[in-house]
C-alpha cells in the first residue's frame, strides 16, 4: 500500500510539472506574437505619421547639361581707365533639372519658375522661365532650360572675374551656377512657400558638331523660407 501511494504521488507530480512547462511555453509564444503585432502596428503608425504629418521639401538634381559656346571679350569702345573694361559674353547652354516630390501623400504645386545663370557670382542670363508645375506624391518632372546670346554686356563682372574666366578657359572646364526661384504650395495647405534651387555645374565646352561629352549628374541645393508649413 505504501509503495502504491508513492508511485501515485510521483505520477501526479510529473503530470503537474509537464502541464506547468506547457503553460510556460504557451506564455512565451503568446508574448512573441504580441511583440510582432505591436511592431507591425507601430510601423503602420509611423508610416501614417510620415505620410500625413511630416512635410518633406522637394529635391532636385541637374541630370544633363551642355555648353556649346562661352566666349568673353572686351567691348570694342570700352576705353575707360577708371574701372575694368566692359566685357561682352557670347554663350549657348542647355540644362535639364529634375524636381522630385518625396512625400507619401501630399502633392506639390510650383508657381512660375524663374531661372538665372551665373558665372563667378555675376548673373549673365535671366531669360529662362518655366510655367506652373504640378507634382503628385512620389513623382518627379524634368525642367529643360535653354539660353543663349551674342555679345551680352556684363557690367558687374570685375577684373578678377575676367581673369578667372581666362583661367577656366585654359583648363577647359567652366563653373556655371543655375538658380531656379519659385513659390511652392503643398496641396491641401494654404501656405505659399518661396523656394530657391541652386545647381553648381562644371561644364566642358563642346563643339556642337561633335558628340557631347558625358555630364556628371549633380545634386542641387534646395533653399526654403523659414515659414511655418514650409
Looking at the overall shape, the CATH architecture of the largest domain is: Sandwich
Give the end-to-end Cα distance, rounded to a whole number of Å. 88 Å
Low-confidence stretches: 43-51
Oligomer: single chain
Number of domains: 2
Tell me the helix content.
25-40%
| Basic shape | elongated
Number of strands: 11
**Could you name the CATH topology of the largest domain?**
Immunoglobulin-like
CATH class of the largest domain: Mainly Beta
Would you tell me the overall average pLDDT? 83
For the CA atoms, what is the radius of gyration?
A: 33 Å
Mind describing the biggest β-sheet? 7 strands, antiparallel
Order of helices and strands: HEEEEEEEHEEEE
Q: What distinguishing features does this structure have?
A:
elongated, alpha+beta, 7-stranded antiparallel sheet, 2 helices, 230 residues, 4-stranded antiparallel sheet
What would your notes on this structure say?
Keywords: Membrane, Transmembrane, Transmembrane helix. This is Late embryogenesis abundant protein LEA-2 subgroup domain-containing protein. Pfam families: LEA_2. It comes from Triticum turgidum subsp. durum (Durum wheat). It is found in: Membrane. It is built from two helices and eleven strands, in the order H-E-E-E-E-E-E-E-H-E-E-E-E. The strands form two sheets. Strands 3, 4, 5, 6, 8, 9 and 11 form a seven-stranded antiparallel sheet that branches. Strands 7-2-1-10 form a four-stranded antiparallel sheet, with no helix packed on it. The chain folds into two domains: 54 residues; 166 residues, Immunoglobulin-like, CATH 2.60.40. A hairpin with a 6-residue loop joins strand 8 and strand 9. 28% of the residues lie in helices and 43% in strands. It is elongated, with a radius of gyration of 33 Å. The chain is α+β, with helices and mostly antiparallel strands. About 4% of the residues have low confidence.
